[in-house]
Design goal:
164 residues; 6-stranded antiparallel sheet; mainly beta; two-stranded antiparallel ribbon
Length: 164
Amino acid sequence: MRTATGTGARERGAFRWSSHTSEFVLTAVSPVVDVAEDDGPVAFPLLHVRTVVPRLDASEPVPEERILRSLERRERLDLARVGETSAEREERHFGEADHEGGGSFVQTRSVRRVEADFTLDCAGDGPKGADPIHGHVTTWRSGGEAALRCGCTKGASKRSAWVR
C-alpha cells in the first residue's frame, strides 16, 4: 500500500474512476434453526465466514483520505477506512428475525464490498502537468441481514433447494 500525507500536485489533481464493482458479500451465517409457527422473534447464533479488509494501492503515494472522499462522493455513501474490517461490524454474535410461519431458517449477515480503479490526473509545472497516478481501492460499506427459509420453491424438486 502506498499512501501519503503529501501536498502539491497530488492534492490538486482530479480523480477518474473505472472498473467499479459493488456487491454483497456474506460475512456471517447461522446454523439451521427450527422455528415453530408461534415462536415470535428468534435469536440466531451467527458464525463468522469472511472478513472484508479495506486496501488502497497506488503507483505513487496519495493521501488515503483524499482517495476515499472521492470514492464516497461517487458512491454517495460512507465507506470503511483502512484498518476498519468488516469483522468489527459483527460485535453482535446473534441476529434476530421475525418470520412468517414455522420451518427451518438460517440467518445471514453481509456487507457491500466496493472495488474500483482510479487515475489521479495531477496538476504540475510542465505543459502536460505531472504524470498521472494509477491505483486500486477495495473497501466496504454497510450491508444487511436476512432470515432465509430452508427448502424448495413449491413444485420444484429437492435438487433445486437453495438452502439445505
